[in-house]
Amino acid sequence: MTKQPYMEADSKHEQVLRYIKSLPIGQRISVRTTAQQLEISEGTVYKAFKEAESIGLVSTRKRIGTVRIDRKRRHAVEQLTFGEVAEIVEGTLFGGTDGLHKPLLKFVIGAMELEAMLQYIAEGSLLIVGNRISVHRSALELGAGVLITGGFEPSQEMVELANERGLPILTSRHDTFTVASMINRAMYDRLIKRKIILIEDIVTFSKPADVLHAYDTIHKFHAMVRKTGDSRFPVLDDRKKVVGMMTAKDVIGVPLDYHIEKVMTRQPITIAPNITIAAAAHTMAAEGIDMLPVVDRHRKLLGVITRQEVLDAMRFAGKEPQSGETFEDLMWNGFMAVEEKETATASIIYRGKMTPQMSGTLGMVSEGLLSTLMSLAARRMVKETSKRDFLLESMTTYYIRPIQIDHEISIKPSLLEMSRKFTKLEVEVRDKQGVAAKAMMTAQMIDPY
């Protein structure tokens, strides 16, 4: 007889999640009031709140509390929200909870007369200003949020107006310049992070994955293979947690009436939704697998990701223009490629000048920076010569002697070996005195096909 799963018809945990989903976006909620309303213990509600936060139903922030949100796919979100700004500036919310989820389009510093300021304040903007009540009122009436700096608190009249308009009114102990710098840095970092693709950006969690259950038989596995054309499936227990993996290799010679839990691979490799696609590609290549279950922190299945989907996403990311400069971009500024024709086979070298910002503690060029420059040069050479990219596996660096600030250096990467899956490189750094550093690198190639 086939073993049947035990499933609680409507668990208290699921009741809490369903209740949260029914709330309007922007509503503030708490563990205590939810427990009282549903007549469920606070411990159970607290655990449900934690899961709701992990799947993007609520957001909990200091000085604000827990708020119902609508989580959009990360790559589609370009602006910070007012709630995120409140967290960045260590702000305290006094009113307008319903507006925390709204995007911040721009911020305006209120360091001018009101008439001049009104030209810049618009719906979706945030006014950063001190204790100027008339300015607070005008901003809220024009559809802008208000951030009061210097630790001042808003008047009760402004709190009521913020609640009426659904626009947040916040305070921060920092001065206006510091607050503006903090927000500007966060907006700049957001531009850079948009290019970093995570698993959650490419997995469709709303689409149910093809799965098996521990109580299913081998006959069910073969039926799934015929139905889907796949040969690898996650195995779930009665709580939808991933407990195993079934592949065609696992069923060789196994009778059709055997239960899957007897032959499945236990404790399979899984991946979290907030992991980068590069990390997923590295795991798949290292373990020799073509599909990974995507799970939450309780190992409940959210979806699956295939090797081909990861590689397609990495190729797409490589073609996207970079918005905002990373530290690597800043390091590489000033370097240019030069084709070296003096040797028997033409090769590419990169030349650039060592600036004072590149110095270490002893006034010489930082060893860590040199290591990064060698890695960047190797990657650029591989991209330019083979139109491919790689994931660095190991790098052994030799620092022969220090390099002076303001000296020009040349970085020469050389291919020692390259196959469809792996590559080995040697990188050499020279200044006017000769060889200063070397590195040996091995990396996994990203298959473009």
From TrEMBL:
PANTHER family assigned to the protein according to its UniProt record, in alphabetical order: CBS DOMAIN-CONTAINING PROTEIN, CBS DOMAIN-CONTAINING PROTEIN CBSX3, MITOCHONDRIAL
Entry protein name: DRTGG domain-containing protein
Keyword Nucleotide-binding belongs to the record: no
UniProt keyword list: CBS domain
Keyword rRNA-binding set for record: no
Organism: Paenibacillus yanchengensis
Residue ranges occupied by any CBS domain in the UniProt entry: 205-262, 264-320
Any Pfam family: CBS
